[in-house]
Structure to design on (153 residues):
């Protein structure tokens, strides 16, 4: 009798955890808005870029998020091409130099490191870490654009 009760209790607990796990999966953490080659563009990427542009004081006449998505699509296409081209490379030094410039723009716009951290809701080290992939892709994209137009006369 006691063994049956333990089994029933165990099954009830297991069922409860399974149902609870299913309910937890209903929450959307992020969304894929586009896929270019093997590269995905997440909704959070568009939102983050929107915040970055606002932090830099960038304005637009149209829908800024739509323009950001269009830029992402073009850049991801260029990055996919650049990654296949063995002549296009990006160094850590290039990434760090670009990152330092961007951080200087943030500092000029907000005034202090603390204000930058408050705006992005994260410490400077994490802001820089998040920027590395974005800057790498931006540099690859720029190099690919240059390669495409170098023979155009």
């Amino acid at each position: 009798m006691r063994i049956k009760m333990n089994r029933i209790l165990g099954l009830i607990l297991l069922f409860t955890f399974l149902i609870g796990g299913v309910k937890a999966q209903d929450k959307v953490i992020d969304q894929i808005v586009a896929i270019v080659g093997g590269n995905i563009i997440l909704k959070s990427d568009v939102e983050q870029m929107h915040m970055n542009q606002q932090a830099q004081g960038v304005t637009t006449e149209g829908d800024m998020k739509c323009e950001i998505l269009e830029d992402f699509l073009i850049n991801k296409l260029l990055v996919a091409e650049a990654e296949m081209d063995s002549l296009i490379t990006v160094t850590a030094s290039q990434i760090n130099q670009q990152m330092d410039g961007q951080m200087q723009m943030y500092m000029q716009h907000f005034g202090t490191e603390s204000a930058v951290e408050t705006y992005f809701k994260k410490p400077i080290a994490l802001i820089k870490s998040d920027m590395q992939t974005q800057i790498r892709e931006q540099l690859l994209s720029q190099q690919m654009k240059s390669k495409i137009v170098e023979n155009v006369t």
About this structure: The two ends are 89 Å apart (CA to CA).
